[in-house]
Design brief:
Distance between the termini: 16 Å
Order of helices and strands: HHEEEH
Largest sheet: 3 strands, antiparallel
Shape: globular
CATH topology: Metal Transport, Frataxin, Chain A
Strand order of the largest sheet: 1-2-3
Helix content: 40-55%
Number of strands: 3
Number of helices: 3
Number of domains: 1
Length: about 80
């Protein structure tokens, strides 16, 4: 199992256990483009798939709240990306 696969499996089993940098790695490997938004927010957009909303995550000390981790997981799962 590769490092990418391990991180994705960890995200599937326990999404709130990951740091923001690991979530960012997952999104970048799923062809999301990172766009710096205002202040501490980071925006991820994927032009290849039809996601209604972009993923926006506020980051503080290389981490984000569990709500944003769960929300990201739901978006990826609902669009068959993980």
């Amino acid at each position: 199992m590769t490092k990418k696969q391990k991180i994705i499996e960890k995200f599937k089993n326990n999404p709130w256990s990951l740091k923001f940098s690991e979530i960012q790695t997952i999104l970048m490997n799923l062809w999301f483009e990172k766009i710096e938004a205002k202040w501490s927010h980071t925006k991820f957009k994927n032009k290849n798939i039809n996601i209604n909303n972009d993923i926006i995550i506020p980051v503080h000390n290389n981490d984000c709240k569990d709500f944003y981790k769960k929300q990201t997981y739901k978006i990826l799962k609902n669009n068959w990306l993980i």
